Amino acid sequence: MTEDNIHSVASYINSNYDKLIEREIPIPYNQSIEELAHILLTKYELPKYIEKELIQDLTQFIEAKEKEFYDTYVEEEVSRAKNDPDYLEDLTKQWEKLFKEETAEYAEKKCASDEELFASAYHKLVHSPALETILSVEHLYAKAVRRRTDQKDAFIQDLSEKQTEEMNKAVDRLEYGMTESEINELVAKHYEDHSLLKVRYASELDTLKEAQRREYRDWVMKMLEYNQENSFPPSPSSPLLTPTSPLLSGPDESTFHENVQNREKEPILEESFTIHLGSQLKQMYNVRILTGNVEDLCIIPVNESSELTPQLLQTALALYSNDLSGLVLMTDNKIGSRVTKDFQENCLKSTEFHFSHIDAQLEKISNIARDHFGESASNGSRSPGSDLLQCGDFYLTKHSNLAQVHVIFHLVSDDTLRGSDINSRHPVILGLRNVLKTACSNDITSLTIPLLLQYDITEEMTTMWCERRAELVFKCMKGFMIEMASWGGSDLKNLQFMLPIGISSQVFHSLADMLPRIFKISNPKILK
Amino acid sequence: MKISLFKSPELQFSATTFFAKQHKGETCGSNGLPLTPNSIIIFGKAQMLKTLKHPYLCEYLDIIRGKHERTIVVSQFCGKPASEFIGKNQLSISEVKKIAFQLFTALNELHKKRIVHRNLSCENILIQSNGDIKLFNYGSYYMTNNGQLVTFPIMKLAYSAPEVYLSPSKADIASSKVDVWSVGIILIEFIFNKQLWSNLKLGQQIRKILSFYQCGTSIFEKIAREHNCFDIYHNLPQDIKEIVEQCLQINPKNRPSCEEFLQNEMFVEYKNVKCKNPSRVCKPYQIFTLKELYQWWQLTGGDVFLELKKQGLIRSSPPVLSLPCLIMLDGTILGQGRNPATLYDFRIVHMGLDTLYQRFGHIHLNSCYPLLHFKSDIIDMFDPAPYDIKNLPLVIKEKDPEYQFHRIILFRRLLHGYPFTKDMIRKEAKKDIPPLLRGEIWAALLDIKADYKKAYAVIDKETVTTTDRQIEVDIPRCHQYNELLSSTEGHIKLRRILKAWVQKNTQYVYWQGLDSLTAPFLYLNFNDEAKAYHCLSAFVPKYVHKFFLRDNSAVIREYLAKFSQLIAFHDPELANHLHNINFYPELFAIPWFLTVFSHVFPLYKILHVWDNLLLGDSSFPLHVGLSVLTQLRTKLLTAGFNDCILLFSDLPEVDIEKSINYSIDTFKKTPKSITAREHQNEEFTIQSEHDISGVTLDDLNKERSPRISARDTTDLLRTAPESILVIDIRNPVQFSRCCVRGSINIPFSSVSFGESNIENIGQHAQMLKNSQERIVIIVGSTDTDLELFPKFLLNCGISKVCVLHGGFNILTSVTPTVLVSQKFET
């Protein structure tokens, strides 16, 4: 069936009947011998009554040839095995490896890792009445981090102000005997003080987070034990209800800096569709087009008076489920690039209780990339030892402390995306296909994509430009989704196309109108 | 009381599961299309295993594909693994001989079918209560294409022949001799009552087996010495010793084949004990089989997947923990470790049947033996009340275990009696068709003859022809969402059937669409290509006669013209709208009728449409087409030409059951001659002077309302005069001289056709407006215009208008007459 199957060809010759019958027969022969006989009967215009004879003759011929074929095939191997003990030893090693790598019977028995244990504990708890407790504890922890961060910012600002004042004075005194070198010294000292303070607070913050993380994880495990022993959820008076450590409250009762970032709330434009794909068998998807930015999906608002937002519930419930939610974040070829600095800072706003912190994750990816490029140095386009990526590559980070997403696809793009003449073979589009494929094979069933593949609105982005770009992305995504149905993974359920906030409502509506023209909208069921 | 019937020890099954190899990166097949996922190739290949039935083999029941290339195999499992006996009960030599005989018999059966077990061990030999064996899990190597479609090795460490270890690369050939070696090892274990090399580690075991290549003496003897069993070895009867020695020949060339072993004199005594088959004429009859039990079990809520999960064989570690880190543009995945849950785990999970027993507990024994031919009140009294869910929707009926139980019991009997029970099958099929037996029932409805296999075998399906290229292009696009049809095996089978059809029907050509038409038959008869072919061959002349002519335009255009007329007949408003926006059936309905909707709907819907089609005639597709339009009616009525084109370019979801019921309804209400065509197959129709003939395509295209035959008119006049309204448009003089009984006269000349207002026709307008359900038959003569009047009625929105073919004069020859003379009436 496949070409790499081992086979040979035998020539069948039969001269028993007036004519000479010749036929090349592949060995081993996997088809029906009866059919072969009839083909020969027709071809050589032989009388029908010899059918049985011919079948028998063919059968014998094929059997003999097959036996011969197997025998010679094995013969070679066997004689080698008899004479070469090293070869046998080599084989043993290969088999051992294969069995250990592929079968559960011989593989190293690994107990469930800490990660897995914690995951299952957490998953069980969030699917119990304890859900709310857990989320509110998380929220309290986040508040503590927030307080500390604010404090740090305040101190640093204080210092900066003081230093500026000092500097101003020094510069004023320049004419009165202050030398330039002294000024330089001062600058150096200021810089040192400043970074020292920063580092100190940063490490303090890290310590706090680490402590929080440990405490939280212990507490979750205890909660689980408690839940298993008592079939009812802990009563509010239970000591287990909340950890009471100082980690929750922070250093002092300093209140939040109400740096109210009340962004000019632009009205969020959005429209939802239920579409179906496939020519005969129709598959349903939810598609949404909306304006917004990455922050909206990531930031959990934390301040003194903040309450839990309902989306968090969903995010927590799905974290260890088979319905993950992902976001495509455009970045440049440097892993952990400054382009996504805002995003990285968002991740650090609260403690990551489940996975490594973003820096550690990026560091790991960077190492993997370096190793890989080092290995495949022959690959001309990539310089060995560097961890620079190419347009269309992407890396994944996972998060438990973002508002609506678990997985971020950091998709590498470049300046060509600003142009208007990209087509479906552009690396970023192909990267999107890989994103979809990865989502499909890792149970990521909700995905958000920047429709224009850009976050900022620039002058080049005319209505025409937007429409062309949107059309390209819509059509390509449609193609990929149809393709995806045959990949045998999990189906995408929700797909969101995000547009930059500042986009005019006219452009938005023209793009939203385009969607049902490209995707087929499902027939609404009408109750009669 | 009859639950014991279900509780037979043989009626048990279990499941195993594994992962198929994932395709690496972005690879394409030689045809430029994406590669078929390995799990689908396995799915297709494994279907053949379901046909194997042998007393010493467990029956394969089902193959299920899960997400991420998981494959689950469901198979019969009864008795206890032989490994549980070893070390406990020492078997007598004669018992060992019997097992040897049965092993060789079972393996020979497999080898003849070109299946190599390769995984043979004491664990998958199941010992029945009577001491017989059944081999389990013998198809893994076969279904994975000699192990090439999976990453793990298909073999059993201590039992595998040494040459298996010589080629760790996957591309290995399937030699049946490896199984013979395994038999040797198994026999030794039985004789010594000991598991061989049980305390050796993995590497040591492999080394041990490979060391046999260095062994100059008898391998059997060597093993005996190593296991301190030399005494047993020494005292062993020569014949069995000989067998084992031969099995353990280091060179496969010197190892006899199973067939040769069976010639051994030692086995003569077992050979004559054959399973008794009382009848040589027909196969022994079972009231139901394990396959059916398995289906009922599924319907009662049995779920293999769930059962595997419950018993820990499907472990799901959260996907968020095993995400990859980095994916390159070329698809290289970095930083994703092997998920331990995807390793091969050979454990077997047994399926509990308790819910089935509970659900079927109350079923009366009589229900298993339905009386087909004779039934009396007295017998009826003792029968339990019939299980009645007739009026529920089809989907519910198909999911109801008890209903399906009764249907399958009944249909199995009827099919067993085919062809003598043909009429009864047809009658029962009108109610509904149980999905499990659909393939066979369809074959019966299409009159497939008993010698169909031979007839198919003699057709040449290999020789290259000119249509091959087109077939090659179409197959990978035909219902590929379906696992069977997208599998490699499915592609091969579909190609063979199509080639056979083209070869056999030289008067026709291969038109695109024939592939879709074949798909349902292949889907239903995947393991019986010949039957699928014959179903297609019987289907084409009956339902799409002449559609596959090289120049089929006349046939198709006639069919479409009839479709337009049928729309006008039942739904004048819609017909008028489509007519006004110039949206003709040519623009959307050709694939509908050319493929009888098999290119339009997904398979599960086609099956239900065709269930009914096979009971109807070649006009049924027209009614289905009408019903589809009816479902889209509100949308269509407000749509312009462009919207309509868009709407049909990707047909919206259609509620199929509603559509079928509607089509059956219109099919029944429409006189046959309304849809009669010049090009329909004469074989299935009787022509007389009172039927319609000789209508040219041009005429047909001009006439917007259909014609009705004199035969149908007189039939209606005689049997249901209240359901028709005959309008005579000749002049009053002719009318008063002689007219159809009960007809009304609206002289053609008295009507002004200027505007579409029904009032223009005068006193009878009210009657026509209220005619709704009545068929309006227009009777004219050669000197009246038979186009304008019906067109006028159509424009006025009067439904069910048709014109008598042949005019008034045709009726004069009808006896007994349906005509009256006014003179005599008054």
TrEMBL record, chain A:
Stored Pfam families: Fy-3
Domain of life: Eukaryota
InterPro entries: Fy-3
Descriptive protein name: Macro domain-containing protein
Classification lineage: Eukaryota, Metazoa, Ecdysozoa, Arthropoda, Hexapoda
UniProtKB/TrEMBL annotation, chain B:
Top-rank taxon, per record: Eukaryota
Residues annotated as domain Rhodanese: 720-820
PROSITE patterns: PROTEIN_KINASE_DOM, RHODANESE_3, TBC_RABGAP
Protein kinase domain ranges (all copies): 1-267
Domain called Rab-GAP TBC: residue spans: 432-617
SMART domains per the UniProt record, alphabetical: RHOD, S_TKc, TBC
This protein's name: TBC domain-containing protein kinase-like protein
